[in-house]
Write a structure and sequence with these properties.
The chain is an alpha/beta fold and about 325 residues long. The chain is built from twelve helices and eleven strands. The strands form two sheets. Strands 3, 4, 5, 6, 7, 8, 9, 10 and 11 form a nine-stranded mixed β-sheet that branches. A two-stranded antiparallel sheet has the order 1-2. The longest helix has 27 residues. The radius of gyration is 24 Å and the shape is elongated.
Length: about 325
């Protein structure tokens, strides 16, 4: 009964040794089992003559069938969890470092109080890895911001982030721009959202070092577009995977950084920095949605639906304010 699961794990890992470790069996035992399966079927599933483990044509058909069986089992398990009236079940929730540290816990706290019988598992990684794992059915819900592929994922918006520029306090330009500077407290009070709060022209910082995220990240694309609007390319020798790490480095005086207002509001990492609203004709470049995403056409269990509902209620903004900060 476990035959297809053994074969599929070898295919997924492209390695007998890694698959054996995941399956809690020895590598010789796993190799022997797969060989017996191939003998019984009358064809080789894996081409062992190549440097990397590849499927034969017959093996591709076998794995395709195995994936369908695994999906049927997954859907059956999901429906059974529904019947349990949320007294059982499991959700795997994931996000980048900032959301895992400061946004997801507030949702989990309320959800767990409502459904103590549902097991919650957490995963933290950069955005690119998260979506890959979700496509591999290792993650149920992703809390993220920026962009997710609408062809592959469905998303539910929670709140809108505003992008600001943070400059280390020890940079002389901060004193010259003191009439535009905002503090952590100003951001928490949403003063950056007021129309009378003026933004700075980014050409003023064109000669300063700017810490950027890697090219796959939405905030990188926004930063490049904002600088391009002012006809310059940011001077950057540091590229990072996580905005939280970028802010920590900026706090040490190593460069300016584009930062979301939600990070300033929730994290204690944004210290030794002055914050500035950015003057731009493209206001959409200063905004990005924080959302919960899940794989398109997956079965939404009652637990997942409840998690989405709790998150939506938690971050519903009050009149005249930005995103509500959870209590």
């Amino acid at each position: 009964m476990m035959d297809y699961k053994y074969v599929y794990e070898v295919y997924r890992e492209r390695s007998f040794s890694r698959a054996a470790k995941n399956l809690y069996v020895s590598q010789p035992a796993l190799s022997a089992t797969v060989k017996k399966i191939e003998t019984r079927l009358g064809f080789q599933i894996f081409d062992r003559s190549t440097s990397t483990l590849e499927l034969t044509e017959e093996g591709k058909a076998y794995v395709d069938a195995a994936e369908k069986i695994l999906k049927i089992e997954e859907n059956l398990s999901s429906y059974v969890n529904d019947i349990s009236n949320l007294n059982a079940g499991k959700i795997v929730v994931a996000g980048p470092a900032f959301f895992s540290s400061f946004i997801i816990p507030s949702i989990v706290n309320r959800f767990a109080a409502l459904h103590p019988g549902v097991t919650l598992e957490f995963m933290e990684a950069d955005s690119v890895e998260l979506y890959e794992k979700a496509m591999d059915n290792k993650i149920d819900l992703i809390v993220d911001s920026g962009i997710c592929d609408p062809k592959l994922f469905t998303s539910a918006d929670l709140f809108t982030e505003q992008i600001l520029l943070a400059i280390p306090l020890n940079y002389p330009i901060v004193n010259r721009l003191r009439d535009y500077a905002l503090t952590n407290e100003d951001i928490c009070e949403n003063k950056h959202l007021l129309p009378q709060t003026k933004g700075i022209d980014l050409t003023l910082v064109r000669d300063l070092p700017i810490i950027l995220l890697k090219k796959d990240h939405d905030i990188y694309r926004k930063a490049k577009a904002l600088c391009s609007e002012r006809n310059f390319s940011p001077k950057s020798s540091i590229r990072l995977n996580q905005m939280l790490t970028a802010v920590n480095i900026a706090s040490q005086g190593l460069g300016c950084v584009f930062i979301s207002d939600s990070l300033i509001k929730h994290s204690h990492s944004a210290v030794n920095l002055a914050f500035f609203k950015i003057d731009t004709k493209e206001e959409n470049l200063l905004k990005r949605e924080v959302f919960i995403a899940y794989k398109k056409n997956c079965h939404l269990t009652r637990a997942m639906k409840s998690f989405l509902s709790v998150a939506s209620d938690l971050f519903r903004p009050s009149v005249g304010s930005g995103a509500r900060r959870p209590a």
